[in-house]
Specification:
The protein is globular, with a radius of gyration of 18 Å. The chain folds into two domains: 135 residues, Rossmann fold (3-Layer(aba) Sandwich), CATH 3.40.50; 119 residues, Rossmann fold (3-Layer(aba) Sandwich), CATH 3.40.50.720. The protein is 39% helix and 17% strand. It is of the alpha/beta class and 269 residues long.
Length: 269
């Protein structure tokens, strides 16, 4: 996963970007609504009985300032009972077990997971981010059946996004600055495009899963970008031409992870 910086997530705990309002305008759904759809759960699903523990991890490059508090705030906004453990690493994990957490969320330099303790199943951030942003694009576009969609970036999130978009009935194309990576996604039914700039300019439904700054002059009028990729930047020209740019640094992916993890239990009831 991309390692976030404290500056990227500083507005998450207090929801200063007012993501629900922005998503309602672009997709007709809130963060919770997108997460529930991504987890294949009904819109009226009550999540309040799930106890979530967020465990800070110090290994590798160490704790990202504000990360655990941000994840905790995101989960609380879903209506779940969440807290950050006092302990870190194994100590924090043990603390969460002893407190009876249903779901444990934790991240190191390489992985960010939500782990359902009862079902012993995990949801990782690449899956959750790809599914959440695919659902957001589908809603913003009024459905994807038979529509052409371009995935920018053939990494872990992009690879999952290709599969989800295909399942939604989209005609999926993929581009990457390393063409061979895009070509490998033919196994999931995606059509690789070699010229990244040309591909972007010729498509209006795009899922941008790459750390790629897209110049406004190549963006097609009326484009819809579902854009989990970081660093994230669209210039004034690009934003004026786009119909919608859906982005947040952490919330959609983390929300899908938490809700899907709860779903492992809900779907067995």
């Amino acid at each position: 996963m991309t390692r976030l910086t404290p500056d990227m997530i500083k507005d998450v705990p207090e929801d200063k970007i007012d993501l629900d309002t922005r998503l309602l305008q672009a997709t007709g759904k809130t963060v919770k609504g997108i997460a529930l759809e991504a987890a294949d759960l009904p819109d009226d699903t009550d999540l309040s009985r799930f106890k979530v523990a967020v465990v800070p991890i110090t290994s590798g490059l160490g704790i990202i300032s504000g990360f655990s508090a941000s994840v905790d705030a995101i989960v609380r906004r879903l209506g779940m009972d969440s807290h950050v453990t006092k302990g870190t690493d194994v100590n924090g994990f043990t603390e969460a077990i002893r407190e009876g957490a249903d779901i444990i969320m934790m991240a190191d330099d390489n992985m960010f997971i939500a782990y359902n303790m009862k079902e012993m199943k995990e949801t990782d951030n690449s899956w959750g981010t790809a599914k959440g942003y695919a659902v957001a694009l589908k809603n913003a576009a009024g459905g994807l059946e038979g529509k052409r969609v371009l995935v920018i970036g053939a990494g872990m999130v992009g690879s999952w996004a290709v599969r989800f978009l295909k399942d939604m009935g989209a005609d999926v194309y993929v581009t990457d600055i390393v063409y061979e990576k895009a070509e490998r996604l033919k196994e999931y039914g995606a059509k690789p495009l070699r010229d990244v700039m040309k591909a972007i300019s010729e498509n209006t439904l795009l899922l941008n899963a790459a750390p790629f700054i897209i110049p406004g002059e190549i963006i097609a009028e009326g484009s819809i970008f579902s854009s989990p990729g970081v660093p994230h930047y669209y210039d004034q020209l690009g934003r004026s031409k786009a119909k919608a740019v859906i982005h947040d640094p952490l919330e959609i992916g983390a929300a899908v992870m938490a809700v899907n993890s709860a779903g492992y239990s809900i779907r067995k009831e």
